[in-house]
Amino acid sequence: MITQNQLDANRRNARRSTGPATAAGKAISSQNARTHGLTATTLQVDEQDRERYHELRRELSSEIAPQGPIEQLVFERLLRAAWDLERIAHLEDDLFDSDDPLRQLTLLARYRTANERSFDRALKQLTQLQTNRALRADVADELPEKTPALTDIPRFAKRTRIREGIHQEPAHRIAFDRELALLGQEIKLSQQELEAVTNL
Q: Dihedral of the CA atoms 121, 123, 125, 126 (nearest 10)?
């Protein structure tokens, strides 16, 4: 059991050791436990690397040219994976100065694999989104008004035979409408599942 004198002494000591008081001191102490930042929830860019990061961002953005908020979100994931892969390469170069290079190499290999997968997934998603955007513009006059924005246009076109003129005949219009109804049902089920998960 703690005595009143000990409790008072603890309180006095706590008032004296409040940590850094200035903004600069707080910024420095916030990085005390940081080792490499590869598992951080927010992107870590050191001051000396900012110019290279912005250069990488400009290069990828000019080549990929994301449009709209969804493409931009996927682009940000791709950019982060590309940046982390570049940082891993630099960390591997400095690896042999550490106390336990084998352990560090194992960790970096795991981070590299995870970031390569993330990069590949984001690139695949961006490719699909941009292909859909281009195809949607190409067949816009043939799509029904109710076609959802994220419809997989190649799959939809294949299943409904867009571009072959077949859907102009009454029997095929019925098939086209049935396909659209099925897509609507899929979306509705997805929304219901999402609501069920969020209500847990």
A: 160
